[in-house]
TrEMBL record:
Keyword Ligase: no
UniProt xrefs under InterPro entries: AKR, Aldo/ket_reductase_CS, NAD(P)_OxRdtase_dom_sf, NADP_OxRdtase_dom
GO MF annotation, one: oxidoreductase activity, acting on the CH-OH group of donors, NAD or NADP as acceptor
Keywords (A to Z) from UniProt: Membrane, Oxidoreductase, Transmembrane, Transmembrane helix
Pfam families in UniProt: Aldo_ket_red
Protein name: NADP-dependent oxidoreductase domain-containing protein
Annotated ranges, domain NADP-dependent oxidoreductase: 93-336
C-alpha cells in the first residue's frame, strides 16, 4: 500500500480553525479573487472573456452549497498508473538531480513524511548513497517504495550493465529497483570522457537484452528508457523484445510540452514521465510567471507550481518535481484535477508557442548530431 495522504484536496467540513488555511478558506479566498479576476478579464478583452465563460459554463461554480463550506468539485487525479508488469507506479515522485550532498537525504526524509513513496534518481546524480541512507532511516518498508535509477551512458555494453546496476543497488541499500531506465540513447566507451560508442548508440537492442536479463534475475521489476524520441522508440521496439519499455522519461514542461510525443505514447501504451516539469532550475521562475498559470492559481487557490504539476498528471504522465526546500516538497505533492476548461486553457497556452527544450547535452557531449533529431538514424 502506498501513502495514506491524498494527492488531491478532499472537501473539508471540520477543523476550520486548526492549522494552515483549510481548503474551505482557500476556496473562499479563491472565489473572492475570482470575482476580482472576472472584472479584470472583462476589461482585458474578448478572448479572455470567452475562456472565462467556457469556464463558468462548465458548472465549476455550480457545486457551491450552503451552509458551511462550499464544496469545490475538483476531479481526483490518478495516484498511480499500471505498468505492463502489473506494478502500479505512483504518479508523483521526488526528483533528486542536482540535490547535493548534505541536502538530498533531508529532502528524501521530508518527502517521505509528506507522503511521497517514489524517488527518481540515477547513478550519475552521484547521491544514491545518501538517498539510500535516508530511505533506510525512514523505516518505510521497501515494498511501499518505488525506486527508479538509470543506467549511465558509459555502461551500455552488455558486460558493464550488471556491475553498474549492482553498484546502484549497493548504494541505495536495496535488493532490487522498481524501475531501471536507459538514461540516454547515447553510449559512451567505458571509462571514456564522453567518447561515443557508435555501434551501441545506433542500436540499443544489445543493451536492452541485458536489461531484460536483469528483470529475470529479479534485480529490477520494470525496465524503460529515457530521452528516446519516437524514431528511437520505434527502432528499439521493432526488435523481438521479451519486455517492452514500461516507461519513457522525457522532458515535458510548459516550454516543451511535446504534444505529438504524448499522443503517440498514449496510442502505443507507453507511459511518459515528465522530467524538468517546472522547466528545471533554469526556467522555473518563468514557468511560475506564465499568465495562464497565475490566473488558474488565483482562481483555484493553488500555488503556480501546483497548477503546473497537476496539469502534468492530468495529461496522463508521471511527474518528477525536484526540490530540496521542505515547504516546496510538501507543496508539490498536493495536486488536484483542474476543471476541464482551465486544463484546456493551460494546454493551449503550452502548445501555442514554439517549443523550447531546457535539457539537451548534444553539443556539450560533442555528439555531432542532435540526440532529439527525429531524422535519426543519422
Ligand atoms: N532523464 C533525464 O535525463 C532527466 C533530466 C532532467 C531531470 N530529470 C529528473 O527530473 C527531475 C526534475 O527535473 P529538474 O530538476 O530538472 O527540474 P524541475 O523539477 O522542473 O525544477 C527544479 C527547480 O525548481 C525549483 N522548485 C521546485 N519546486 C518548486 C516550487 N514549488 N516553487 C518554486 N520553485 C520550485 C527547485 O528549487 P529548490 O530545489 O531549490 O527548491 C529547482 O530549482 C530531476 O530531479 C530528475 O529526477 C531527468
Ligand atoms: C463532480 O463532477 C462530476 C463530473 O462532472 C460529477 O459526476 C459529480 O457528481 C460531481 N460531484 C458533485 C459533488 O457535484
Ligand atoms: C492506485 O490508484 C487507484 C485509484 O486510482 C487506487 O484505488 C489504488 O488503491 C491505488 N493503488 C496503490 C497501490 O496506490
Ligand atoms: C535500429 O537502427 C539501427 C541503426 O540504423 C539499425 O542497424 C537496426 O537494424 C535498427 N533496428 C531495427 C530492429 O530496425
Amino acid at each position: 500500500m502506498l501513502s495514506g495522504l491524498p494527492f488531491y484536496y478532499k472537501p473539508l467540513a471540520t477543523d476550520e480553525n486548526e492549522g494552515p488555511p483549510s481548503p474551505c478558506k482557500l476556496r473562499i479566498i479563491a472565489i473572492k479573487k475570482l470575482l476580482f479576476q472576472l472584472l479584470t478579464i472583462v476589461a482585458i478583452g474578448y478572448a479572455s472573456y470567452l475562456g472565462t465563460s467556457a469556464f463558468l459554463n462548465s458548472g465549476f461554480m455550480g457545486h457551491v452549497h450552503r451552509p458551511g463550506c462550499p464544496h469545490r468539485n475538483f476531479t481526483a487525479l490518478p495516484n498511480n498508473y499500471s505498468l505492463p508488469s502489473g506494478d502500479k507506479i505512483p504518479s508523483v515522485a521526488l526528483g533528486v538531480w542536482q540535490a547535493g550532498k548534505g541536502e538530498v537525504g533531508a529532502a528524501v526524509t521530508t518527502a517521505l513524511k509528506a507522503g511521497y513513496r517514489h524517488i527518481d534518481g540515477a547513478w550519475i546524480y552521484r547521491n544514491e548513497e545518501e538517498v539510500g541512507q535516508a530511505l533506510k532511516a525512514s523505516g518505510v518498508p521497501r515494498d511501499q517504495l518505488w525506486l527508479t535509477s538509470k543506467l549511465w551512458n558509459t555502461f551500455h555494453a552488455p558486460e558493464d550493465i550488471e556491475p553498474a546496476l549492482d553498484d546502484t543497488l549497493a548504494k541505495l541499500n536495496t535488493e532490487y529497483l522498481d524501475l531501471y531506465l536507459i538514461h540516454w540513447p547515447v553510449a559512451f566507451k567505458k571509462d571514456s570522457d564522453n567518447v561515443l560508442d557508435e555501434e551501441l548508440t545506433a542500436n540499443p537492442y544489445q543493451t536492452w537484452k541485458k536489461l531484460e536479463e536483469m528483470v529475470d534475475k529479479g534485480k529490477v521489476r520494470n525496465i524503460g528508457i529515457s530521452n528516446f524520441n519516437i524514431a528511437r522508440v520505434k527502432n528499439l521496439t521493432a526488435n523481438p523484445l521479451k519486455y517492452k519499455p514500461a516507461i519513457n522519461q522525457v522532458e515535458l514542461n510548459f516550454w516543451n510540452p511535446q504534444p505529438e510525443l504524448l499522443q503517440w505514447a498514449k496510442e502505443n501504451d507507453l507511459l511518459l514521465e515528465s522530467y524538468s516539469p517546472l522547466g528545471s532550475n533554469k526556467q522555473v521562475s518563468e514557468s511560475l510567471a506564465v499568465p495562464e498559470v497565475k490566473k488558474i492559481s488565483r482562481m483555484l487557490g493553488l500555488t503556480p507550481a501546483q497548477v503546473i504539476l497537476s496539469w502534468h498528471v492530468q495529461r496522463g504522465t508521471v511527474v518528477l518535481p525536484k526540490s530540496v526546500t521542505p515547504s516546496r516538497i510538501v507543496e508539490n505533492f498536493k495536486l488536484v484535477g483542474l476543471p476541464q476548461p482551465l486544463f484546456d486553457m493551460l494546454e493551449k497556452a503550452a502548445t501555442s508557442h514554439p517549443p523550447k527544450r531546457v535539457v539537451n547535452p548534444s553539443e556539450y557531449w560533442k555528439l555531432g548530431f542532435d540526440v532529439f533529431d527525429e531524422e535519426w538514424p543519422f
